[in-house]
Design brief:
The protein is α/β, with parallel strands linked by helices. The chain has a single domain, classed as Aldolase class I (TIM Barrel, Alpha-Beta Barrel). It has 13 helices and 13 strands. The longest helix has 17 residues.
């Protein structure tokens, strides 16, 4: 059914249809028995799929990656679709519009997306207020970043502000230094600035009555030497884990005509073309760390087989984003059913 509807949805500009569909889901949720309708369509049998990680109980291992519900506007609605957890953001201390539109593009031939959103969001305090009002008990991660106009020398302050703003309402944190759509952000993945940032956040975390798990989200384009540095830093700073991976800047091996890809321009590529890169990074980290670093996998997950591949590579949980758009609202139900088999 969704594959038929998708043909109509894909005729509308991606960012516009995203907001229209999510507002529609919010309307259904607000109707009498609306929650029951959503749950009936997307009900997930979680028996045998529960996970204990970071001191948290996940009803199943399939989550929604950051970028879909940036401002925590649809947490309760998304919980009805069976997700084991939802990651909001990336949020920044101050609201910002992001990059100019159009900034989100489909590559149907590759089951992929290119985005250069640029951390468009209403700010961490606004997201925190919405999370205070959520009714569901779904686990929520807070993906945090820096404002576009904040120089890298002052980035630590931005991450600190986001951490404090979301501390009471987020179950775990993800430090995003790997988006390709904020100028110079990926420079923060270099060894010394990254070590400084994570040490500072862990110091703040230790001062809290109940410290929260902090993870690091990394790019799929890192060399093995850079991954070795990441592993060393994560172990040294006692981070809870890694989210692997973000979008790629590579355009290799696409079926979409090169002229179309060139016309789209800059941005991070997600979906099926990232699948192998992401799995390779997960396997490398898991092997080199001797399984000591918990990993949340993201990148090219469309089916139960894709999810199982990530779990076999060393991940403990998985996240979908592009797969959710291409496969529809029953993706979690289908993946969980496949994993149970």
């Amino acid at each position: 059914m969704y594959q038929l509807i998708k043909k109509l949805l894909f005729r509308v500009q991606p960012e516009k249809i995203h907001h229209l569909v999510m507002r529609g889901m919010k309307t259904i949720y607000a109707l009498p028995f609306g929650k029951n309708i959503l749950r009936a369509c997307c009900d997930v049998k979680t028996s045998g799929l529960e996970r204990e990680l970071f001191g948290l109980h996940f009803s199943n291992p399939v989550g929604l990656a950051a970028g879909f519900d940036k401002d925590a506007k649809y947490i309760d609605e998304l919980s009805c679709l069976g997700f084991g957890f939802v990651e909001i953001g990336t949020v920044t201390p101050l609201a910002q519009p992001g990059n100019d539109q159009p900034r989100l593009f489909r590559l149907p031939e590759d089951k992929a997306l290119i985005n250069r959103m640029g951390f468009n969001n209403e700010g961490a305090p606004a997201a925190a207020k919405r999370l205070q009002r959520k009714k569901s008990n779904i686990i929520v991660g807070g993906n945090i970043g820096k404002n576009k106009n904040t120089p890298n020398e002052e980035a630590v302050s931005d991450y600190e502000k986001c951490f404090h703003a979301l501390y009471d309402v987020a179950d775990y944190f993800v430090v995003n230094v790997s988006s390709p759509n904020t100028p110079n952000l990926r420079a923060l993945q270099e060894k010394e600035p990254l070590k400084q940032l994570l040490h500072h956040l862990q110091l703040l975390n230790a001062q809290k009555l109940k410290p929260k798990p902090i993870l690091l989200k990394i790019a799929p384009d890192l060399t093995n030497e850079q991954l070795d540095d990441i592993i060393e830093i994560v172990q040294e700073t006692k981070l809870a884990g890694i989210v692997a991976t973000n979008t790629t800047i590579s355009r290799e091996g696409l079926a979409t005509p090169a002229a179309t890809v060139t016309e789209i321009g800059a941005g991070g590529l997600s979906g099926l073309p990232v699948k192998e890169k992401s799995t390779a990074v997960i396997k490398y980290i898991h092997t080199r760390s001797k399984g000591s670093i918990p990993i949340i996998a993201a990148g090219g997950i469309f089916t139960a087989a894709d999810a199982q591949e990530k779990l076999d590579a060393g991940a403990s949980l998985v996240q979908v984003y592009t797969g959710f758009i291409y496969e529809g609202p029953t993706i979690v139900k289908k993946i969980c059913a496949g994993l149970r088999k």
